[in-house]
Amino acid sequence: MDTGTKSPAPGGRKDGTSGSGPRPPVPGLPVDDVFAALDTSWRGLPGERARDRLEKHGANELPRAGRRTVWRQLGAQFTDLFAVVLIVASGITFLAYALEEPRDAGTVQLAVAILGVVVLNAAIGFAQEYSAERTAQALEAMVPHACRVLRDGERLELPARDVVPGDVVLLEAGDAVPADCRVVEAHELAVNNAPLTGESNAVGRTADPVAAGPLLEARNCVFMGTDVVAGGGRAVVFATGAATEFGRICRMAAAAPRQKTPLQLQVASMARRVAGAALAIGALMFAVRLPTGDSVVTLFVFALGVMVALVPEGLPATLSVSLSIGVRRMARRHALIKQLLAVEALGSTTVVCTDKTGTLTQAEMTVTQVWAGGASHSVSGVGYEPSGEVADAAEVRELLRVAGLCCNARLVPPTGPREHWRVLGDTTEGALLVVAAKVGLDPGAEEAAAPRVTEFPFDSDRKLMTTVHRTGAGYQACVKGAPGELLARCTDVEWDGRRGPLTGTDRAAAVAAGDELASQGLRVLAVAQRALDGPRPVREEAESALTLLGLVGMLDPPRPEVTDAVAACRRAGIRVVMVTGDHPLTGEAVARRVGIVRRPDPVVVTGARLDAMDDEALDSLLAEPSELLLCRVSPEHKMRVVTAFQRRGGVVAVTGDGANDAPALKHADIGVAMGASGTDVAREAASMVLLDDSFASIATAVRLGRSVYQNIRKFLIYVFSSNIGELGPILAATFAGFPLVPVSAVQILAIDLGSDVMPALALGAERPEPDVMDRPPRSRHERLFSAAVVGRILFLGGIQALGVCAVFFWHIHSSGIPFDDFTEDHPVYREAVTLAQGGIVLSQFFVSLAVRTDRQSVLTAGLLSNPALLAAGGFGIALMAAISYLPPLQAVFNTAPLDATDWAVLAGLGTLPLLADEARKAWLRRRADRRRGGPR
């Protein structure tokens, strides 16, 4: 038995751990020995002893994953490679200022400007990450907040965190179990273990000792995080906090490594390459200009300017903003993103491993078929709301009346506008009460007309439940249970108001009908009744010589939006695999209803078969293009399947709501937990939480994630083409022998802040393109700088560079002044520098319009459809005008005023990249049209 490794938790023991220690083997002990082993009694713990145990074992809480402090989050923004490069550059520039004689104020201005860029980008990135990640802390924990216990014989309601080993917990239908407990008294007690095992069926509990075996299979134990669905009883706590089965899975999830997303890997790789290229080109420029006779410090500052021109210092901030916009858009669709990079990871997903109960289905058992008299009666309506109809209701009214009387559950109507109908007790019985209400029966009125006098609870051996009621005609036994067991006890049949012997033909028809319903994935119950002579019959009498009334078929219905979501995933090239702890027949039936399975021969693999497979066999299984269902699997199986898909190069998303899903949720590239019905452990492990538990949000997330990646590529094309526009004139001046630079390092930083960062942020807000979900997932190995991206960067950047070089050297040449006579204070040089800077800014504005789409004309997309981009471009142009006309800024940037003719020339040159790119897009569209119209 797992004794539970201690894990830190708030309010833990002095040694920093929380939860009870090694547990006695309570499942195999008689009830009296259980009390002795746990040093407690039927009256519960005395108050003083309970306080001592709380001090010893710590609070009954699960360990939470440590969160980074605000200062660590802020500090992490300065560890990005681009930030490090710029910080080092700023430090070296400060050092150069200290060493040069005479000192140049422009050098210290450059150092401060570089540092300012780093701080601004860090502030933007931190604000976005902090906002997104703090939102996740608003999630409610699943573990119950209060429970009822006995202390010194007194019934108390305590916070669940104060429960200790030895406490006697009082359990009733609807309660959440606060800790791992040994049942010592059970009255028709049944629990839902789905959060731990993945199976949605209620399982009965007993107070009797059981043979040694896996703890989760012990029928006399209940576990933290599960629910009581029927009956009541008492149980003694033997494990709390991290030592519970919930805690074991929580530790397993904490140990699973968090995988890096494809975007993280690609950005890290790109950052290394760009930084290396910037340093290399800066060193080359230093070497090329060394023979000019300038001081080493001056040349070094010049080389730093070249390097700064190549470093996309706005990338970290733009990446954070683009992802954050995706987070906010998804939040409006009830999907909470806990980690920004999870948005992009969803966009590159190739496989979705989805749970069944509560994810694909509604976790609300619903009767869909009633069989009686050789005919099937369909039932409309889904869930616990008693709206819908039963076909030919009069013919099955008596059947449903008897089935409703033989129930302990209670149907609870909503009490507020945001609440829904719910069932207090067993979900199967809840489904029977709902279908009874659909034929006009009132459970309360029927119970009053035929009060219950005796009950024989369901048990797994008989597979029956019987209640005895007093009626106006005497006493009546109402029986429901497994069809095979109940049919064996029937001698008569009552169909369509006619009663007679149950013939062999009738029996065969009932068996065939039950098999047909079961083949549809329905859970089938048979219903019967008999008249009794008195109120206290022995069980054998009450459950013999029964009159068969018919069969009821029910299922946990799929969510209505799931089918469209699965279809959208298929169109997007995403493989959907069901991974569930439920029975294969049930899993396949649900999979067919939602479209995961469409072929007649899906591959169904159980956990036992997975255990018999080595990694090579599992890889071969996953490589097959078949429709795959994995049933009866454990948390370890899920982890192994996720790892196998990742080993094959897949980007894996895992959905789930139970604690048993947590390890796989954390190990996956993207874990998607349920917010409304999910467990605290699952939500903690996941990267994304669906607040409305809707599977359809996954397809939306994929769509938004793909648009995030597209927007990042748009930003890269925009920024690096602009960098070529900045670097081109510098290189041209160097090789032409011009002694000064067309654009200074301080001007480049002003351009980057005014015309790079803001428009790039606006590009990150672009809406997804219409056909984004009709494309296959991109490969994990696809580079951000693909051949197409690099080609477009060179195309647009080359046009910008040619235009800026033309306007700069045209102004220099038209003055008739030799190159060697120019100084930094020369009016013509200052005018030429201003023209160069203005040319870069205006061409960047038109490039930002061009990169919004890949093939679609910007006129079709709408020039005004991204007002943020227009505003950002306007800000950059306004800043350029201020640098040109305001004397204080003229002194800093060494600029001169531009006249109307200058602005007209710059605008004309600026439109060239846009016009050229529109021509390129038109050619691509015509080529695509020719291919579609050609031979297939």
Q: Please report the distance between the alpha carbons of the first and last residues.
A: 64 Å
What is the helix fraction of residues, given as a range?
A: 40-55%
Output the structural class.
alpha+beta
| Unreliable spans | 1-18, 135-144
Mean pLDDT equals 82
What general outline do the C-alpha atoms trace? Answer: elongated
- For the secondary structure, the number of strands is 26
Instruction: State Rg.
Output: 36 Å
- What kind of oligomer do you see? single chain
**What share of the residues does DSSP label as strand, in percent?**
15-25%
Give the helix tally: 32
Largest sheet: 9 strands, mixed
What tags apply to this protein structure?
936 residues; alpha+beta; eight-stranded mixed beta sheet; 16% strand
Describe the structure.
With 936 residues, the protein is an alpha+beta fold. The protein is built from 32 helices and 26 strands. The strands form four sheets. Strands 10, 11, 14, 15, 16, 17, 18, 19 and 20 form a nine-stranded mixed sheet that branches. Strands 8-26-25-24-9-21-23-22 form an eight-stranded mixed sheet, with helices on both faces. Helix 10 runs antiparallel to helix 25, helix 27 packs antiparallel against helix 28 and helix 28 packs antiparallel against helix 30. The longest helix has 41 residues.
